[in-house]
Structure of Membrane dipeptidase:
Amino acid sequence: MESIDLHCDALFKLMTGKVPNLHGDGTGGLDVTYERLGECGSRLQVFAVFIPPRLDDRGLYPLLESIDLFYEKVLSCPGIVFVRSREELQKCRAEGAIGAMLSLEGVSALQANPVVLLRLLHTLGVRAVGLTWNGANWAADGIMEARGGGLTASGSQFVRQCRSLGILLDASHLSERAFWDVAALLDTPFMASHSNARTICSHPRNLSDEQIKALILKRGLIGVTFVPWFLEASGNATVGHVLRHIDYICSLGGEHAIALGSDFDGIDEHVPGLSHPGQLYNLRNELLKRFTEEQTRGFMSQNAWSFFERNLPS
Ligand SMILES: [Zn+2]
């Protein structure tokens, strides 16, 4: 089995200092560990740099600390390959290695000089960017910002710069208006790394049918997420609910747009039987009861693989 996961917050747990490194069986509190990535045949794990709003007054420092931890604690694991290009991605499959990609979840910390800082972060290997977390910042409004604004002028410029550097856009936390602004600006595919279908579970973090269709039309990617309350309003979600969202996105024509965006280490509660990468087998087994082997392979890894192979710079 091969798997690809578009979103985890392991770097944030490393930054809090509660866990010393990426190793172990999870007893230290990490969902995503090096060993578990090996168990689920991970070919690519996207590591998000998430800085909670309460640390915003510390400027760039927490963001840089997170990236340092990625270099020190993730890339130091044997058999982990830094994925910044198509060739590095291909190397992971050729060598049976685990790819690791750096992504930003919110750009608040770049406010002082977005153009220069984005260029530097690109040099450090960042290849995906979500403009906001839930709130608003200088670039755009997040989905929980009541006024529901779109991209600012600086935000639009920033999206164009991402496009020219070959950094992929992630729309998961964006306000609806900002989502459509990004869609209008980009002639290239983008993704929603960890969001589900709002018609199935009416949470603002989930995508409307129109958003799902737009991502499909643009050959983008939707990372179905295991956040219990994005799967089922009561929060009592099962692996069956994950399948329900996948089923629904397929019904909109999204069979080739579906990927996984676990949000491991970003959630306190887990779907039973799906609480860490080592348990992805349970999802795969359920998928195989309903979908063909090829479709299942698509959801677990191949759709994301093709997306990154098409869209990462060489
Ligand atoms: Zn998130």
